[in-house]
Amino acid sequence: MVQTPDPLRLGATIGILGGGQLGRMLSVAASRLGFVTHIYEPGANPPAGQVADRVTTAAYEDHAALTAFAESADVITYEFENIPTEALDVLETHRPIRPGREALRISQDRLTEKVFLQGLGLQTAPFADIAGADDLTAALAEIGTPAILKTRRFGYDGKGQSRLSASTDAQTALAEMAGAPALLEGFVEFSHEVSVIAARGIDGAVACFDPGENVHRDGILRTTTVPARLSSAQRTDAILLAANILNALEYVGVLGVELFVTGRGLIVNEIAPRVHNSGHWTQNGCAVDQFEQHIRAVAGWPLGNGQRHADVVMENLIGDDMNRVPELARQLETALHIYGKADVKPGRKMGHVNRITQKS
Amino acid sequence: MVQTPDPLRLGATIGILGGGQLGRMLSVAASRLGFVTHIYEPGANPPAGQVADRVTTAAYEDHAALTAFAESADVITYEFENIPTEALDVLETHRPIRPGREALRISQDRLTEKVFLQGLGLQTAPFADIAGADDLTAALAEIGTPAILKTRRFGYDGKGQSRLSASTDAQTALAEMAGAPALLEGFVEFSHEVSVIAARGIDGAVACFDPGENVHRDGILRTTTVPARLSSAQRTDAILLAANILNALEYVGVLGVELFVTGRGLIVNEIAPRVHNSGHWTQNGCAVDQFEQHIRAVAGWPLGNGQRHADVVMENLIGDDMNRVPELARQLETALHIYGKADVKPGRKMGHVNRITQKS
Lengths: 360, 360
Description:
The structure is a homodimer.
Chain A: E1 13-17, H1 21-32, E2 36-41, E3 54-57, H2 63-72, E4 75-78, H3 85-92, H4 101-107, H5 110-119, E5 123-124, E6 127-130, H6 133-143, E7 147-151, E8 161-164, H7 170-177, E9 182-186, E10 192-200, E11 206-208, E12 212-217, E13 220-226, H8 232-248, E14 253-262, E15 265-272, H9 282-285, H10 290-298, E16 310-318, H11 325-329, E17 334-338, E18 349-358
Parallel strand pairs in A: 1-2, 1-4, 2-3, 5-15
Antiparallel strand pairs in A: 6-9, 7-8, 7-9, 10-11, 10-12, 10-14, 12-13, 13-16, 14-15, 16-18, 17-18
Organism (chains A, B): Sedimentitalea todarodis
Pfam families (chains A, B): ATP-grasp, PurK_C, RS_preATP-grasp-like
Catalytic activity (chains A, B): 5-amino-1-(5-phospho-beta-D-ribosyl)imidazole + hydrogencarbonate + ATP = 5-carboxyamino-1-(5-phospho-D-ribosyl)imidazole + ADP + phosphate + 2 H(+)
């Protein structure tokens, strides 16, 4: 029997890579459990720094800063998956990284991720590896259009993607990849998208939040609604497949799983080895939200109670949506969550609101 | 018509006097609304500092530090009422203090507070001003025993109090006051104690959380239970009298009102011009908790939704209770709130738990 590591003691330091809103809300959750946090973030004045005990402002190439950061922490976690591999190598010689390296390796590369998911017997969109023009021609012949060409690495919020309506778009789309390894993905006919925010503890216990239904615009999540429109069979499927993924990765922490709901079952869109925008509703819908659940897991503590006690619609506040804050603050059914970012930019996630109603 | 001040802009700084657990939880609530906080605290490494943007470690006699602190903030609030008057004088020349000076003046002195409450037509325990031995003899003849001799100022958690079982205890009790101005309070026969956590916005709007029922041991709050055992008439009385106090003080922020439930109505025990230990249940029982409600008020924002959605029993974790944290972390109905204090001491409030059940 494998021995599980000791749970983190009260007062221990959790190192968090990335100082954006996810790191910020992880920090708050960590404080609630009696931990302190240390944020590592290349950008100046990160939102998470306002609520963290310590902040290191340094690049992911700064091995001395990475080492000092790792040594200050008892365990290291992260708010985003695109951490340079070399930085992870440095950090891991000093402290455990949770969720572990395998989850990062897989989710950092769209191709690796899709192969992994299929290996678990899960459905994905049709896809093909695209190293150059010949690959693309062959793949388009097989997958057809419409399709999306995506960089294999470092994509988020619709970035690094190009849509092909017809084969004639191939050259333009390939040029947009700028030589980066890419993937062609076929379109999936789906009625709606849902996501499961799933957690696995260090002891192997699994707990999933109720699936949420997501609406995107311009590649950015706009709203998540719980409960999602799912039959009870679909709900069970969604949770079982998320647990399947967690167990295959021997995962520790919270994982976001995006699913397309189709006539031929649930199709996995993508996974994210971290707390997830579509799980923000849990802050006002559950006693233990996704942030605390993640901290509990990476700290080696037991998972908490993620049962849903309300219906919630989470809406992201993006760019100029911030002008609506005074009005939103007056709405009694609306809970505000603002990220403390100094500059409002178009497309930038500035906060979110949770609209809470009685559980249906 | 009096013009209300402009609401605080996003990103504004809220200065908080005191860096204990109340300042800590106020800081977290402020961050949720997009504010940053600056803590002023004489003691090193205050719990609130772990989740605040800035900390000033300086004495309340340090006028230069107070001035710099005030100038860094847009508004100043506090987590405790015993702030030296001279410090308040310095701060107020630079920035508004909310709740205002009148609430502090009254609640800093038990005698002034009782006179104020009676002036509003509210019931208090019988009391008498005690400047020396003669006063005490006369007061004991009128009020009788058992009674409690209390310092007029700077008492909390049962400190600065001496119980008199008989007139013969007078000399010992007076010696314990060490020459400080004191107050003799008669005992009140009551069935139980409740408290109302009441909020008033800058526009005069009032919102009260559902009353909680409090159990003390050794002068320290142990548990608060909502709903409290109250008839609907008593509940209405409790909320109306809290609103009466708020309006009389032109109060801005959250106020705690402790009440004895007796056969001849509700008797006001004491008021605290701040968030209150007996309001911690709101963190897991309401969409907007007492900390956010206080921040909304002092920021000049509209009050939020404090409607109760669950039954809650709040239990303080005091001293060695912290040894129970691993067990508490496994209980699914229990939400943990740990204060990040380095040293466990007997009688020290280290955290609390909220036990959540479906609303009855």
